Amino acid sequence: MTAPVAATGDAIGVDRVFREAYGQAVATLIRIFGDITLAEDAVQEAFVVASDRWPRSGIPPNPAGWIVTTARNRAIDDLRRSARGRQLHEELGAVVDPSREARIERREVEGPVKDDQLRLIFTCCHPALRTEHNVALTLRLLGGLSVDEVARSFLVSEPAMAKRLVRAKYKIKAAGIPYRVPEDADLPERLRSVLSVLYLIYNTGLEGPERASLRTEAIRLARALVELMPDEPEAAGLLALMLLSESRATARTSDGSLVLLRDQDRTRWNRTMIQEGHAIVRACIRRGRPGPFQLQAAIQAVHCSADSLEATDWAQIVALYDHLFSVMPTPVVALNRAIAAAEIEGPGAALTAIDAIAAELDNYHPMHAARGTMLRRLGRGDAARAAYERAASLAVTEADQQFLAHLLDALDEGGTES
Amino acid sequence: MGQYLLSTYAVEGQGAGAPSTPEDMKTFMERVVALEDEMEATGTFVFGGALYGPDAATVLRASDSGPVMTDGPFVEAKEHIAGFYIINADDLDAALVWARKVVDAISHPIEVRPFRATGRLRA
Questions:
Q1: What is the pTM of this model?
Q2: Closest Cα of chain B to A193: distance in Å?
Q3: A178–B91: do the CB atoms touch at under 8 Å?
Q4: Can you tell me the distance from the alpha carbon of A213 to that of A376, in angstroms, rounded to the nearest whole number?
Q5: Domains, chain A
Q6: Which of B90, B92, B97 is nearest residue A128 as measured by Cβ atoms?
Q7: Which residues contact A218 (CB under 8 A, 6 or more apart)?
Q8: Which of A10, A95, A146, A367 is the most buried (most CB within 10 A)?
């Protein structure tokens, strides 16, 4: 997989290790010290030491382990010296064990290190935190993005993002949001929250080329989640959905304008990602525990299997949308089903289906764009124009606006011809 | 172990959570009693109660000429606190489990808030 944006500092390797080890190191340090900010500071310090030492002495065999050990030792040194450390010492002193260090040592061997990252994922994505805070915490603590990087991805200023992170960490501490994997009874709901945060990060990465690194990060986190929770088919489904969507990333835009699936150059699709996505979808089908992400991945898998638009198995796609609607009855699913069904039943039936949900999706530009296309195909040029114009007035990204401008231009040309 | 306030709000002009028919009232009471029994048996229950409406409230303010009273609630709002529980819970997840049970019993939204400190101050 090639990441188009994140090509930094590979000469040294510190940056690459940073991305891969940051979340793991912070997660372990939070367990050891029970304090997020302390853990972040310690890991940052350890990376400063690494960036000074590694270029000269080489990257150690277990870089993540080296970072954790160095960060832990630094944090203990700092605790011994600082006023904050004394305060923390007093808090920890409330427990029977008189020695903080002994307590810290004991915590370190309490659980497998692998679980630390999982704990942190569930804390960052806790549904008692607002979604924008879930996203910010996940990217900062697990992804290791700088506050400035997170801020730029969400079009807010660095101080505003810093404030957001402080507020989120304050709530975790004050409200007593626990640092652990949820109990079985809560797991389905809590996992849904994690999956939707990761998917939101991925989709935000689709909103412009400058945000593409969010997609890479979302896929990396989804992959980590699947490794940590191999028995959760929905986590696998999310990873497959992201991979299959990502496989078409380079074909999705041309000269800065959106290119619809039907018009994409399929030779530009990434075969490696498609193969991996297909393999995951097949494994999900064998498990027989379908859910919304698995079904969305299965729909993408059918699209990616077709060498041409004509070769697409639309009946299969419509059947999958029906299944998806039965577990996730949202108007957006109904819209997508209608768009797929148009390939079999024609634009008239699709328009009827879209009109039935139009009021609910009045502020959703893809609905107006799809409606415009059905109207155009039915030869109702004026109504199509009105729908495209409404879509254009709602579209946010540059690529979407350009795409809709093209549609309106094409409508003009079609109009003069007839 | 922390303590949390679970509070429920009534909206002016809407029922305060208690059902209107005697039959519904009976099952409502049974649900609440069963919940409170469970809270007590698990050492969760600290205190709880239902409040009279804001019309019964009085606000006291200090002034140079002594305390001044005003009739009515501190904040003029359509929503006002109708009742609450104070519970013991290890962390937010544990408190949320109880909050969910309260929601199921009374069919009203519950606000969960952690106590920063509890008990009386001592020198």
A1: 0.85
A2: 14
A3: yes
A4: 36
A5: 1-110 (no CATH), 114-230 (no CATH), 247-329 (no CATH), 338-418 (1.25.40)
A6: B92
A7: A198, A199, A201, A202, A205, A242
A8: A367
